[in-house]
Amino acid sequence: MIDRAFSCEMAWHAGCTLSQTVFSFLYVHALPNLDPDTIAQSHHGESDRARPIELVSVVLRASVLGLLKCCDLAWRELIKGNVYDSEDWQSEKCDVPMSETYPVSRILGILDEACIWIRNSSRVRSTWRTALFHRLVLRKTLVELLSALLSKDYFRFQPLVETARTMLQHVRASPPPPPRPSSPALRAFDPQFPRVLVSAIPLHPIQLPDQSSVWDTLAGLLDSVEQLAILTEIPDLSTWDVVGTLRIWQPKPNQSLAYIRSAFQSAIYENGIILNKFLQKHAVDCFFMEALQISYDSFISSFQTRWVGPDSLPLGHIERTITQLVVGRIKSHWYNPSRRRRYCMKSLFDWHELYALLTDVQKHLAPVSGIDVVGRLRPVVLMYRFETIREVILSGFQLALYSVNERPFAYWYLAQVLEQHLSCFDEIIEVLPNSVPRFEFQFRARYLTALQALSFTLFAVTIKTMGSSWERLRLNFLRRYKWAFVHEYADIDIPPVCSTA
User: Fold this and answer.
1) What angle do CA 115, 117, 122 make, to 5 degrees?
2) Start and end of every NAA35-like TPR repeats domain (predicted)?
3) Total domain count for the chain?
4) Are 218 and 127 within one domain?
């Protein structure tokens, strides 16, 4: 029952409802009857050394309370809005309590009491003693881990992850035998139970995943939490950008749970704080230092010295826009693929608006004989915009959105975008000193050159498959690339670079 309760929990994390998963475990609804004092009075005088009542009133009760507390802690993270209810996860509780009134310390105390009883009781068979102990310690560690994640105590992650991994290895090494057909354990889970709960959506019974898959999912969750703990020690947002991009295009099994994606987004930015320690200005500092190898303060100094415009400096607007775009870009790596594609499409106009603002600002700056710090910013903004266009196009392949007739143009347009993208890289690399960022830009330029060659080749191969009429192609084009024709562009004098028009 304890192992199958883990199956219910992981199935909920995978996107099923609580009613279909955790709430199908009938002991969740019988908790008031499992109180040790209550159950001791109702079974006074009864004795079964093979199956002592404490296995239910102490061990099973502690496990169920720990399960519900883990779900409660995960629910609190998920409800923040980083992931979307009914799209990434299911929030409906059906008026079933999930240990919300129990503080974490109380749940941990109950689990500790159960562990002590298992170690000290002579009525627990030796074959079960160690197996039960490992499962209770695993549950206790998960409660601590999810609590630490919610409170952002990232320094606590590593020892907790190591303990959970050790316990998980022990649990996997000692699977319980399948229950006999007459065992009451089989009746502890009722897939039809959701029909008696108050639910806003129609539900159908589901098949819980097999136990091996459940442990794999839990191991993936632990790996993701460990990665988060490592990343929170790295202040460079470019590292988060690389890790997030790899997550999108080379996803690892069991590391895309909505709970984990929400936790990463909370770590990146929440309540005006970046990486749980920096003010919002940190995003702008990273933007300038990682792309231009200059500090934001140097940019401000050059800006103020050279400004000859009639109005006040638009520094505040530039800083806010860069912060919004950089933070939003990195957080979007932990969206689901469809939501990320929509975000990228919407952000394209914001990148163009920033580029247009910098172009206008350039007209009101006094000439400079040395390095034009402000002028170097525009190619960087264009670079990010081209990267976003590239992601929009490629995500169409990832999500299988393109029909056979749409693919040739997608390959051709991708090649054109990459050509402009490489031109931006040339401008940026030319003024960078010999440093790690310069070598990274050179590597990325080689990568984009190869991707461009591949795009041209695929265009040449697929162009022969186009068979629709020109009118049908035109309509498909306008529908698929509507993000390039939003009416807001008409309000800006400078046309978008590399437009499809």
Assistant:
1) 125
2) 318-425
3) 2
4) yes
